Amino acid sequence: MTLTKDHLIQSINKCTGMSKFQSKRTIESLLEILKKNLANGEDVLISRFGKLCVKAKNGRRGRNPATGEDLMLEQRKVVTFKCSGILKDKINGTR
User: How far apart are CA 10 and CA 41, in angstroms?
Assistant: First the structure.
């Protein structure tokens, strides 16, 4: 099952007793802060969870799989996630 924004809102609502409206505003505010910092090229470190990083990818040659046509992919930025050691251990059941 995929965790959606709605699931997060419902979980915050149940855990904290906040109204659904307040829970939604909290999640939306958090996501806006994350997006703003990533758009500015800043990393986002959440202790005991992981780090979101903006990385530059160089341009490269590619191929359109539908037509087989060669093309040039432009330089771009991507967001990567590096899991914390604590989360990695929890996922693997070692903690």
Answer: 31
Tallying the residues shown for the chain, one arrives at 95
Nearest by Cα to 19 from 30, 6, 31, 9: 9
Q: Give pLDDT tens digits for 41-54.
A: 999 999 999 999 99
- Domain boundaries 43-95, CATH class: few secondary structures
Nearest alpha-carbon partner for 30 in 20, 14, 44: 44
Q: What is the pTM of this model?
A: 0.79
79 closest CA partner among 32, 26, 48, 43:
43
Given a contact cutoff of 8 angstroms between Cβ atoms, the answer to whether 37 and 52 are in contact is: no
